[in-house]
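Write out the 3D structure for:
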Amino acid sequence: MDGAGNPCIFADVAIQNGRFAKIGKIEEPGTSELDARGRDVSPGWIDMMDQSGEVLPKNGLAENKLMEGVTTAIAGEGGTPVPVEQLRDYWHALEKGGISLNFGTYFSETQARIAVLGYQSREPNADELTKMKSILQLAMENGALGMTTALIYPPSSYATTPELIEMAKVAAKYGGIYASHMRGEGKELVQSVDELIEIAEKGGLPGEVFHFKAAYSPGWGKLMGEAGEHINAARARSVDVAADLYVYTAGGTGLEATIPSWAHEGGQEALFKRLADPLVRDRLKRETVTGSPGWWNIIEASGGWQNIVLVNAQNPDNAKFQGHTIADIATALHKDPADAAFDLVAQVKSGRVLAIYHMMSEQDIQTALRFPWTSIGSDAGTALTPGGDDALGLPHPRSYGNFPRVIAKYVKDTHTLTLEDAIRKMTSWPATRMRIADRGLIRTGMWADAVIFDYNRIQDRATYENPDLTPDGIDYVLVNGQIVIDHGKHTGKRPGKILYGPGYRN
């Protein structure tokens, strides 16, 4: 399969100097040959929403990513893993140590905001905005792919639409993309999509919805379609907007997301002080029910505390509660569920308390997959050690199974997609979105990233109960012409390349 969505052909594929050299009937022998008869040969799979930036310097092998067929990872929801001034040193360190997959990252608007405003909940003045723009400009010149936001998390949530438009114009000047974890993914999904469209349109650059979802049970079967119609309408008037998604009905993030945004102003120490104040806590508990301006109520989106599962307490004393819902933990502690959640957050001084939020429907995943402009992103990072949790410390099956699941479930089981279109969504389409001109297709002259898999055997095995199980059926994975996965085992090779943004200046 060439990756463009065309029907498959039966052919030999020759690779030379890291690139596809010839496709067809090839009589000449190779220095090494793989017998792929009875297998499907696909371009390497591209993860449009990766979280590996911080861990790749520690584990460049990226075993869990390669073993599920990912050859290229696009990271940066939270920005670059180092300050903008250190970004070139970060690239050089990755190149020197070697990585097994291709990697690029966005820079977060929030990084520029914190550098100038700290954790203040206010708009920047003209001078401050100029400083923020200069930081983003340097990030683009140092190789960032574009600008991101994560608008449910403070202090990103403090940014207004006009501020984001002005910042987006800087990324646009360098050919960058704006990608966002939007302001809301529940009942306010359509309005959040409209904001992203406005930022992309007025900022003059492509817009990408991170992990497209309809996380609100009363809106299941309706909101996703409406949001897609708004994106279709924007595309019809030449606004370059699209989306990526992971193929699970549960999300995962920090438990602090259950605390209204205003309480985070000033940073973690200020938050803990507020949580310790009985009057402030009473207000926060009320707002988990009534809502709060500028805050996406992820509790409501999940349908209640009974659908939020603690998976990483970051505290040995609370580890016994991992795998239990916040509602059950509250019952065991004889507390209100909000108090139980707030206490779990407050009892950790470093790291994020992490939870799984069951809040989406299978119907909406299938609706999203059918839009021709959706691609696949895991929202998961490289594991520090093989068989361990991803870099976020979040045990979620998307870290090990997201890409084979697209084929196993949504091609083979539900017939939501054809195999050729599923491959297109994981190869040529994301490469096109990211302006990666020499990847995403099996075509002469392009970099030889490839996945060789058995359609009959391919199967994700990771579950919520056992999230770190590697998939079946992926026999070989090649990156830049080198075999990185051989019969399901990592070869130790590190042929990956850095994907610098279009504004990169040597």
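The longest helix spans residues 126-141.
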